[in-house]
Specification:
Strands 3-2-1-4-5 form a five-stranded antiparallel beta sheet. Strand 1 and strand 2 (19-26) form a beta hairpin. By secondary structure, the protein is of the alpha+beta class. It has helices at residues 84-100, 108-123, 127-144, 159-178, 182-198; strands spanning 2-15, 19-26, 30-36, 53-59, 68-75. The longest helix is centred in the C-terminal third of the chain and has 20 residues, at 159-178. It folds into two domains: 2-76, OB fold (Dihydrolipoamide Acetyltransferase, E2P) (Beta Barrel), CATH 2.40.50; 79-198.
């Protein structure tokens, strides 16, 4: 197996002394896991940041081993990780994708929607501009994996109603998609929701 494709990096898990296992969201191959040698070295550390857009080459090895990947940076989300709200938004969107989608199943609409969400988080003037996009992405993900028929949030939904919607969707995600992993993954969402509520009075 040899795949060359653009990908959104969703998670990085250190593996061994120098490497890491990454999960990559691709348009044609869905979520893919692969081993990156030297991932913890100086050259690759700034490349392997969740949310980054990469060019990847994934090469299959023995059937009992993870594929290996070579990665090249296309666009970095690093500059936004020093800002609390964008950092929390990027972290949650990537953790949700990496934790809930089955590997090897193409979800081209989810891939494109995740890319649009990350762009919105990085370039919208404030979180009010991208929180609705985030809510829409969660609705789409739930629908794509077979849970729920909730419509996307309306364009002019008041901010308190949007926050209440995000609360409801969080319960659905935790109960339906994450099961025994909810505590680990939903922690990043709790941080995000807390930060979104703080801007309610603006």
């Amino acid at each position: 197996m040899l795949i060359r494709t653009p990908a959104i990096l969703c998670s990085v898990l250190p593996n061994g002394e120098h490497g890491a296992v990454v999960r990559l969201m691709t348009a044609d191959h869905g979520l893919a896991a692969a081993y990156v040698a030297g991932a913890r070295g100086r050259e690759l550390r700034p490349v392997l940041i969740p949310g980054n857009l990469l060019d990847v080459e994934v090469r299959g090895r023995a059937s009992s081993q993870l594929p290996s990947a070579r990665v090249e940076l296309v666009a970095s989300r690093g500059p936004w990780l020093s800002e609390p709200l964008p950092s929390a938004g990027i972290g949650w969107a990537c953790a949700l994708t990496a934790s809930t989608l089955p590997e090897g199943h193409p979800y081209p609409l989810l891939h494109d929607s995740l890319a649009s969400l990350l762009d919105a988080i990085c370039h919208a003037p404030s979180a009010r501009g991208w929180a609705r996009v985030l809510a829409g992405y969660e609705v789409l993900l739930l629908r794509e994996v077979g849970y729920g028929t909730t419509p996307a949030p309306p364009p002019e939904e008041p901010w308190p109603d949007l926050l209440a919607r995000l609360d409801r969707q969080g319960k659905a995600i935790a109960n339906r998609l994450l099961a025994d992993r909810a505590r680990d993954v939903m922690g990043s969402r709790a941080i995000l929701l807390d930060r979104l509520r703080r801007i309610s009075g603006e």
